[in-house]
Amino acid sequence: MNILVQKQPGIWMLRWGQPEEHVPSRQHYAKPPRNEAIGRLPAPPLPFEFGKIRFTPGPRGCRLELPMAAEEDIYGLGLQLKSVCHTGKKRTLRVNSDPVADTGDSHAPAPLYFSTAGYGVMVDTARYAAFYCGGQRRVGKTPSGPEAEGSIALDEEELYSSRTTDDTMMIVDIPVAQGVDVYVFGGPSMLEAVRRYVLFCGGGCLPPEWGLGVWYRTCGTHNQGEVEGLADELRREGIPCDVLGLEPGWQSRAYSCSFRWSPERFPDHQRMVESLADKGYRVNLWEHVFVHPSSPLYSQLLSRSGDFEVWKGLVPDLSTAEARKCFADYHRDSFTSKGVSSFKLDECDNSDFINSPWSFPECSEFPSGLDGEQMHSLLGMLYQDTIGDACRQAGVRTYGSVRSSHLFSPPQPFVLYSDLYEHGDFIRGVVNSGFSGMLWTPELRHAASAEDYVRRLQAMVLSPQMLLNIWSMPHPPWCQLDKKLNRAGEFLPAVEQERLKALTRDILRLRMSLIPYLYNAFAEYHIDGIPPFRALVMDYPNQEELRRIDNGWLAGRDLLAVPFTAGEAERTMPLPPGVWYDFHTGQAHSGDIHLKPSLETLPILVKENTIIPVAEATERVRDGMHYNLTLRCYGPKPRPARLFADDGHSFAFEAGRGFHGEVGADGVLPPELTTRYRVACVQRH
Amino acid sequence: MNILVQKQPGIWMLRWGQPEEHVPSRQHYAKPPRNEAIGRLPAPPLPFEFGKIRFTPGPRGCRLELPMAAEEDIYGLGLQLKSVCHTGKKRTLRVNSDPVADTGDSHAPAPLYFSTAGYGVMVDTARYAAFYCGGQRRVGKTPSGPEAEGSIALDEEELYSSRTTDDTMMIVDIPVAQGVDVYVFGGPSMLEAVRRYVLFCGGGCLPPEWGLGVWYRTCGTHNQGEVEGLADELRREGIPCDVLGLEPGWQSRAYSCSFRWSPERFPDHQRMVESLADKGYRVNLWEHVFVHPSSPLYSQLLSRSGDFEVWKGLVPDLSTAEARKCFADYHRDSFTSKGVSSFKLDECDNSDFINSPWSFPECSEFPSGLDGEQMHSLLGMLYQDTIGDACRQAGVRTYGSVRSSHLFSPPQPFVLYSDLYEHGDFIRGVVNSGFSGMLWTPELRHAASAEDYVRRLQAMVLSPQMLLNIWSMPHPPWCQLDKKLNRAGEFLPAVEQERLKALTRDILRLRMSLIPYLYNAFAEYHIDGIPPFRALVMDYPNQEELRRIDNGWLAGRDLLAVPFTAGEAERTMPLPPGVWYDFHTGQAHSGDIHLKPSLETLPILVKENTIIPVAEATERVRDGMHYNLTLRCYGPKPRPARLFADDGHSFAFEAGRGFHGEVGADGVLPPELTTRYRVACVQRH
Q1: Burial of A278 by CB count in 10 Å (0-12 exposed, 13-18 middle, 19+ buried)?
Q2: pLDDT tens for each residue of B449-463
Q3: CB < 8 Å to B363, chain A
Q4: Which of A137, A355, A357 sits opposite B312 (nearest CB)?
Q5: Range 525-554 of B in CB contact (< 8 A) with A
Q6: What DSSP letter does each residue of A553-571 carry, written as one string?
Q7: Global pTM?
Q8: What is the Cα–Cα distance from B343 to B274, expressed in whole angstroms?
Q9: What ipTM does this complex have?
Q10: CA dist B11 to B38, B65, B74, B269, B575, Å?
């Protein structure tokens, strides 16, 4: 180790050898740390002896061995859909859109992990590094004597399940690089280590309030009239909705993209955007980064792109200032200055796991000197930041969707999503993503049954984004869940449609009523670095029984969401220490809880002595609107609830024009909060 | 390109840059080419313009781009279980034991592919190279004008299925290496290109005749008495069997291995081995390469092993002469000179896809200078060759099992197998493995139903190894198919047991009756390089309809095996050109065939004008025994059948003491064949 720098209190940078030129921390998207907020965290001890880290460069790249105690459990490594706790596993961080096995492949792998021992480690690399999270042992590390004959396994699972109780190590195998910077984030607690990382990256994003409302992606074949018709239908039916997303069909050419409105399907798009705005809808546009020859961007980007095409389109090198400016300016002039608020950034990951891989090879070359492997790691972040610029330049505080991310993602106002669709994986994604300062939506695409439909909707209520992604069906899902029948216009019986519609409305209204609570959680993400959605282990690292919970998460400071999946009738799960109250009924629980929710019910538990502000549900968020709150008090001595008040839609909060305040069980709001909130009622449970 | 060497007629070696030191061709296991046999193949044209190959070194390693025409289809890349034709796909050749997706991960990936255009390409690397098998396009390669608006996809499959009709390229992305040797194998036909590769590697293996008999792996918990009891039971029941395999329990310590007999379970192992030999059984021993501290090999290998342990055992560096000799000599002295004929070489692949990865990291270091990635690629081959030596030194012509392989495998007398167990994958493995000069068994481990059981047995009849791997059940499968019930000693009703036993017996007897035919197929593998089991496309590359057949294969020159899987009642498949006869009934077919086999029937088709020698089935192969043949003649003008005669069990054939001859429909054998064969009957169909 050559250099050890204390960057901020409790953050150490360690350097070995000569790091590569193209690393995440040197990209344009790496924002300044929020030093003041970091300074407010308690000073941590040195998490482990840095002198014990072993660095070995070689022809393949370099290897790090970091000490790890037998009792440590390891989390993070980006969006991991297949397991929560990585201890004892190998994780190779290849960027990939449809990983089917628990190997580390991910839309958004990040070389960053956190330990229950209360620290985090970020490896500043754009390489597909492999992490061996314990279980490996050097030859001769401990004297090994003869042992008793072991028992004989008779199935594969037993055969391969051997685990060690010795102290072990984390091995990081970094391809190519002959040196690397490692950042260690101290705690003392696990949550504080995560917060230090988030604040180091510039703090978490604060979405506009409308971003926390309901999103509906319209059918891929819809034209302008059909989109407007849907907009009217949703309002008519009283289905809350803030954002309408248009799929590839809005473009004259997609796969690859022209980035131009289709003259056939959207001849009068500007009028449509304005008319949707009048009805209270924000417009989100689907795109990917690959530039079709018919795009106005093509000629400008031809010399600023990688050497291989994707879908016969260019892959612009957004790590260069020129390509980035060209791409951002075009989006500003064509879209964000003309009423478009948001984008869905598709296909910026990679494609090893599907039948016809479509993305650029890892051995591609880019004008900046990035190679394809590095570009795959960074593209999602480069793309987010470029589009974020296009929004900011037009004064649009955006919130969008993206299919890849990496280190330094916390400030980016984008939510990850996937084409993979196993509901358990989707729920696990929410649990996991918080460790890496990422946001993930367990979106609804379609449903195998009414139960599946309802459970999938419920799983989004306390998630970063409430998204009905109905891109493959022309009619709303409550008309017909079956894709083929929906396309054929064959609807469910009217009674069933009404039932589904009512269920939908109730779930979406629950989401709308929790916007003030969620908005505050995001404010705390922004200001204090607390991930709004977190695994239980993050707040309770010493509770062994919570370390592998992958189907429930903490939402904000005080709620615990326990979404169910179709076919799951009941569940017994351990609660964190203390008393927890049923959000709906106020019933108190502690220890293990047995849940058997009716179809209508998303189980939500509330930490004792908490006030949850619940708003009167509206069909959409209006800029600067007042929320009428019911303060629900749980437990005998409720602490004040926190609320954040700004205009909810501009960048004014960044200049300090936002107020973070409290309201107690007396219901008296400080004056700064009255600009946005009214207390209508105080309820005691 | 710096060097272009014509190695043998139709084989070119192309060198770029400075290849790595540790490559497959420089390992001890690379045998001398069979130049004389190569010289007998027709001279091929240059397969493509070598000048068009583009080589790009860079920090990640190096990239090759090879020309590829739009109509070419690509096959090979080692044992690939998930698809047969690789055109348009990306294949990353990571060594792995349980790959679950169609991405190139494999027990036995090999950087070697063959094209329907009639050539093969071998990339001499031990790196996890990635092959982009067409579909990629350089920017600016062809002028791209604006295109019509495409249709809008409404499901993911449609979205990602776009394919190009342009000429494309094969991209090979080789990590680390700054140079590489590429070997091009000319045809002119695809089969001839494959043959050239096999002969370049030293020709295919010729198993001892007993290796083509029936194998039965005994239960992991079995002790000496139980193994002997099983041996008696099989003979008593008239179940053919040549080889009994012992699982880890034969060792005093396994996972990792002591390589010593268990004094508890096998106190009198030498007597047992001899007694089994008296009953006509060969003994096969399970092991893996990882050396437990209690092993006599440990101290000798401590300084000759990698720096990381596996299951607390050493990973010996078998690429060094010292470790290799130590390991081989020990096996010779302890086992092969004491009556053991064969080994099952387990766990020599890698373990990314299972819950607790157990193998050494890719960033390991070995005394030879090999790193872990290279060692994973080569370990299976190093292990086979080392154990092969231990056998040869004791005069044992072996045939065994192995879980990993790579380039230069054809001469190795080992058959690949897997813990994965999807029957379709197992069948596909036979179809695929021939392209890479590998052998693969669709072994039986257990069965979900009687139908599954029978279909799995049938699929092995015309495969490299007929293996009942009953390691997880104490009683034969015909007593009870269900693992748990079998372990509990709860058997099927007697009638069902008798039915299953009779079905088993019939299938195994069919296998035994085909040994002369299969032995000749292996002789042609050895002498002429013709893979004994081949995809239809290998012999018929221009039949578009055969290019993706993954559930039937050619066995030997003249048979086409079409195994069925449980639940599959019927199948229509295209036949290769000409008339094909039902092996069992003699019925003639051409064009498409509709198959609806009864449970008892493995569909086998015979090429027109063929004589198939069918032997009287015996319960085992005896050294130097005579086969009583029925010559089954199909079609009006049957060509003579070929037979190979040597002693069947020694290395004498290598010194020319083997005879390859013919027998026509007159049934008259040349004198050299009469040493092993008698014609009992000639049947015309």
Answers
A1: exposed
A2: 999 999 999 999 999
A3: 56, 58, 60-61, 63, 130, 171, 173
A4: A137
A5: none
A6: EEETTTEEE----TT---E
A7: 0.96
A8: 17
A9: 0.95
A10: 9, 19, 19, 49, 32
